[in-house]
Amino acid sequence: MPPSSNPQNVPPRLPAIGPLHLHYQPQVKIPNKATTAFEALCRLTDPIQGPIPTEPFIANSEQSGEIVQLGRQVLALLKNDLPALLTKYPTIRISVNTSPTELNAPDFAEHFSTWLNALPPNAAHHLTLEITETFLMQLSDAALAHLQSLRSLGIYVAIDDFGTGQSSLARLHTLPFDIIKLDKSFIHQLDQPMVHEIVRWVIAFGQRFGKTVTAEGVETQSQLDALRTMGCDVAQGFLLGKPAPLAHWLALP
Ligand code: G
Ligand code: MN
């Protein structure tokens, strides 16, 4: 996108790698609460103003195209953290949010393979790319083929914020994915009978087709209990663990 002539619309510049850091939020298997994955979430800190809210910053970076650089900084940080994480949690996956602009960048495949090749052996089996539903539905054939090739290496694809985008049921069964991340808005309204039934349907659908269903935004014990009763596989949310720096997860007994 060309830079805006309106200074009010100028997105914030991407900070140098210093203030950008990663937090990790656990995803646990619902039956035994074992940690099965961590979602890597980028966090930004301004040296003077302190923490910068992530969501508007990412939306702005997506608009300006700087999201590509941001995504690469996230991968660079993850490369440093991965060996320690896998030593402490040898069976986990780390999931990374991937933006449409990033996946469409002409050199994405090349950059990603160079990054992957510099990781410990078998790293592909410890990675998940999270892609929002709307984007996954609109993937170009080239991006789709690329995702397929990453899956053939062992990388999982998760549909992020499932249920809030533009899913076409006709298209869903043709797409390459392993995990459905049910959006937190459903989990927060589980006490409503119709929402409850939608969640039950998504879980049954996932199980029928061998997909893992992860519930996002689990905040209360009663939400977790309801999800367990419905046979949901994995939960993520403040009840199970808030996003925290690597050192926090490495220090746990
Ligand atoms: O779009 P995506 O699902 O990747 O968003 C993850 C964001 O959701 C993170 O910024 C994280 O802080 C936030 N989040 C994680 N767990 C919870 C939760 O239990 N409740 C709410 N409201 N937000 C959460
Ligand atoms: Mn996500």
Which structural category do the helix and sheet elements fall into? Answer: alpha/beta
Work out the helix count: 11
Beta strands, count: 10
Model regions low in confidence, pLDDT < 50 over at least 5 residues: 1-7
Averaged pLDDT, please?
90
Question: What does the largest sheet look like?
Answer: 8 strands, mixed, barrel
Bound chemical compounds: guanosine-5'-monophosphate, manganese (II) ion
Spatial order of strands in the largest sheet: 1-2-4-5-6-7-8-9
Proportion of strand residues: 15-25%
Protein described:
- There is one protein chain.
- With 253 residues, the protein is of the alpha/beta class.
- It is built from 11 helices and 10 strands.
- It has an 8-stranded mixed β-barrel with strand order 1-2-4-5-6-7-8-9.
- The radius of gyration is 18 Å and the shape is globular.
- Bound molecules: guanosine-5'-monophosphate (G) and manganese (II) ion.
- The site of manganese (II) ion has 4 residues, from loops.
- The site of guanosine-5'-monophosphate has 14 residues, from strand 6.
